[in-house]
Amino acid sequence: MSTVAEIEAAIEKLAPKDLRELSLWLVARLQPAESAQMLAAIDEAERSLAQEGGVPVEEVRRTLRKWITA
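Above: the chain's sequence. Below: its structure in token form.
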């Protein structure tokens, strides 16, 4: 079994392409899989957007400016 220090040393020797591949693998490994609740929430958001419409980007920008400067 390798120590963290040994793994870090090996990672520092990786080529950029291999480092990117390792990074993607780690992100996929550490992020939780899509849950049924998350997928249901996405479905509901899509349904709501289709039925009720969205918010114009100009309104979002105005509101965002208010939140940021408040």
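The mean pLDDT is 89.
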